[in-house]
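If you are new to this repository, start here. Below is one unmodified record pulled from the training split, so you can see the exact layout before writing a loader.
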Amino acid sequence: MEEKRPPTKQPESASAPPPGLDPETVSALHKLANTLERMKFGEYIAYMNNTKRLIVMNLVAGLFRGMGITLGATVLVAIVFYILGRMVDIPLIGNWIADIVLHVKCQIANTK
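And here is the target side for that same chain:
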């Protein structure tokens, strides 16, 4: 004996298109709707409409970006001056580099 199953609801894409729309247009609209759902487009719109949250998130992102740039530049300049300090023994440019290092040390001493 065959088991009876309750009728399943047909997905909207299988239903007849609304009057005035061809099946290709309806199919394209369903694909677009599915894509927007996968992208969580609704959550993005809700985020963009919440002005207070948007301002706070951008402020925090800007603060961290500024701190990252500052720390990165500090490390990079320290490495450059370390390498320049090691190059003092090179003829011709050694004296020039020594003068630069001396000026930097004087400026650091003056700011303290």
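Two things worth knowing about this chain: The chain is about 70% helix and 0% strand. The CA atoms of residues 37 and 43 lie 9 Å apart.
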